[in-house]
Design goal:
Layout: H1 9-16, H2 20-31, H3 36-65, H4 72-90, H5 94-117, H6 125-149
Length: about 150
């Protein structure tokens, strides 16, 4: 199935908008004074996990609306996103949490694109997810690099 080349305006706003706090935190950890970078990383983990869980909910919601998209693979994708997000919230080391979220975002970028191309996710995700989630990955990677530098 050839995806519609247009990405709805709402998907651009609500796709890239939630990535902006991750970019801000990725910059903030390098430029903020004192103990602020530690707080920034904690906020990045919380925000990153919330958004990854939301992406899992979007996938599951599409399956509710499109019964043929409720395959075991689609259910597993939605569950994996939420599980990775939840795990990132409970691991004891921030570097591991950030790495998990970065991997989860990369996974979602690839899996959602594939699902969109096969009709198991909204078609515009084939064009949106990779650049959208790479923006989030960049912010998370900056946090990880800061954590590893200290």
């Amino acid at each position: 199935m050839e995806p519609d080349p247009r990405i709805p305006a709402a998907s651009i706003v609500f796709g890239y908008g939630p990535m902006l706090p991750l970019v801000a935190v990725g910059i903030g950890v390098w430029v903020l004074p004192g103990g602020w970078p530690v707080l920034a990383v904690q906020l990045a983990v919380i925000w990153g996990a919330l958004i990854l869980s939301f992406i899992g909910g979007v996938r599951r919601g599409f399956g509710f609306a499109t019964p043929r998209a409720s395959t075991m693979a689609e259910l597993a994708a939605a569950i994996a996103y939420v599980a990775i997000a939840g795990l990132a919230l409970v691991v004891p080391r921030a570097a591991i949490a950030v790495a998990l979220l970065t991997a989860g975002y990369a996974l979602a970028a690839l899996v959602d694109r594939r699902a969109a191309l096969s009709g198991d996710a909204p078609a515009h995700l084939a064009r949106l997810r990779l650049p959208q989630l790479l923006v989030g990955c960049a912010g998370l990677a900056a946090c990880w690099a800061w954590l590893m530098s200290g």
